[in-house]
Every structure is written in structure tokens, then in C-alpha cells.
Amino acid sequence: MTVREASRADLPQLAELMDAYRVFYGADSDVEKARVFMHERLIKQDSVIFVIQNDHALLGFTQLYPSFSSVSLRPLYILNDLFVTPGKRGTGLGEALLRHAQGFCREKGAKGLALETATDNPAQKLYERLGWKKDAGVFHYFWTS
């Protein structure tokens, strides 16, 4: 298994993974819309996408969005997406993607990684095992336009 940064050549498989990720979270399947979205991220370089592959097949991805901490005066990344194909879950691929993202942040001198997840997401155990801390001292708000 290899974890590496995604490239434009990965777009066909990456679009399929993004579509499966969206469907997992209740969105309607739309591979073309997923392809356009991921193509824009790659072209604009406004996110960092890591993929994990076995031979020539992409088996999962994670997508990080840059942000900043005004208090610490340092960059940070928001781990917005983490997905492993259903048949490969529980085999360490998600952990490999998370560890790679953590190493990337260390290399960049970032404060760290932030993520939000569903309260019933079984991956919480993995996050905590890898050193993530649940932030119970704040509320998260979201405004929808």
C-alpha cells in the first residue's frame, strides 16, 4: 500500500471515491459532479488530497483544507474527508491515511488537524488511538445560506 498526494491522473478513480463518500453520507450519487468538484480542488490547489493505493487501484482518500489559528499564529488543516472503500475498512488503510496527514502537518509546521464527525461514527476509536482529543469545551455552530 502506498499513500501519496493525488494528481490529475487520479481523477477518474478519485471521482468514484468521492461519489461513494457522498453517498455514504446520504447524498445522491453524481459521479460527474464529484469529478468536477475534485478537479477544481486539484487545479486550484485549495486542498491537499492524499490517496492510498494498492497496485493501480485507489482504495481511499483524505482531503485537508488549509486554515489558520489566530491565537497560535500558525496554520492548521481541517480534515474534511476520510474515506476507505467498504471492502477494505478495518484493514489499517484509514489509519495509514490519518498518519500520513499527521506527518504532513508536522512537516508544514502546522498547529494540527481539526475534524468533525458524527457522534455514532465508529472511527472515533481510531482518532483517539492516534492522539486526537475530543473538544467538549466548545459548541459548533453552522449557518446555512
Automatic annotation (TrEMBL):
Alphabetical list of PROSITE patterns matching this protein: GNAT (PS51186)
InterPro entries xref list: Acyl_CoA_acyltransferase, Bact_Acetyltransf, GNAT_dom
Domain N-acetyltransferase per the UniProt entry, residue ranges: 1-145
Record bears the keyword Ubl conjugation: no
Entry-linked SUPFAM superfamilies: Acyl-CoA N-acyltransferases (Nat)
Pfam families, per the entry: Acetyltransf_1
Stored CDD domains: NAT_SF
Keywords: Acyltransferase, Transferase
PANTHER family named among the record's database cross-references: AMINOALKYLPHOSPHONATE N-ACETYLTRANSFERASE-RELATED (PTHR43877:SF2), AMINOALKYLPHOSPHONATE N-ACETYLTRANSFERASE-RELATED-RELATED (PTHR43877)
Protein name per Swiss-Prot or TrEMBL: GNAT family N-acetyltransferase
Organism: Robiginitalea aurantiaca
